Amino acid sequence: MKHKIKLGVNGQDYEVLVDDKTTLVDLLRDELGLTGTNKGCGTGECGACTVIMNKSAVNSCLVLAVDADGAEITTIEGLAHDGHLDPLQQAFIDEGAVQCGFCTPGMIMVAKDFLDKNLNPTEEDYQTAISGNLCRCTGYIKIIKALKKVTGSER
């Protein structure tokens, strides 16, 4: 069965028809063409599909599109403005926190949500914040370094 839903994505309003079983990640990628959100495990284990929905990070593979009706979504494509990367995106580049790049969009989105809510994080806070996002390449050291660069707590 098809449902008409309305949602805001990266500041743009959309009205789309979705099936009962369509996930938010599939809607973003297949219907809206926002392929920066990666589809990894499909079970909420890897975090590659993380987006910010209504000001909280969510695994978009676990959210049905019908449940996003009325939601405000931010994807990795929505962070850059006026041709300038978000400071977090730039820090990932500057600190070499990307290697294969598959986890990077989800990692940045979960980090963005974390940093927006935590003005003075501890070392443990950084580790906990990204613990639900898997990265097989970097060992997380450079990722945490990038987060610290954004908060000004580099060591």
Q: Class by helix and strand content?
A: alpha+beta
Q: CATH topology of the largest domain, anyone?
A: Ubiquitin-like (UB roll)
Query: Given the structure, what is the number of helices?
Result: 5
Could you say which overall geometry the principal axes of the C-alpha atoms support? globular
Extended strand count: 5
Q: Can you summarize the main beta sheet?
A: 5 strands, mixed
As a percent range, the share of strand residues is 15-25%
Distance between the termini: 54 Å
**Side-by-side strand order of the widest sheet:** 2-1-5-3-4
- Can you give the helix content as a percent range? 25-40%
Instruction: Spell the H/E element sequence.
Output: EEHEEEHHHH
Low-confidence stretches: none
CATH architecture of the largest domain: Roll
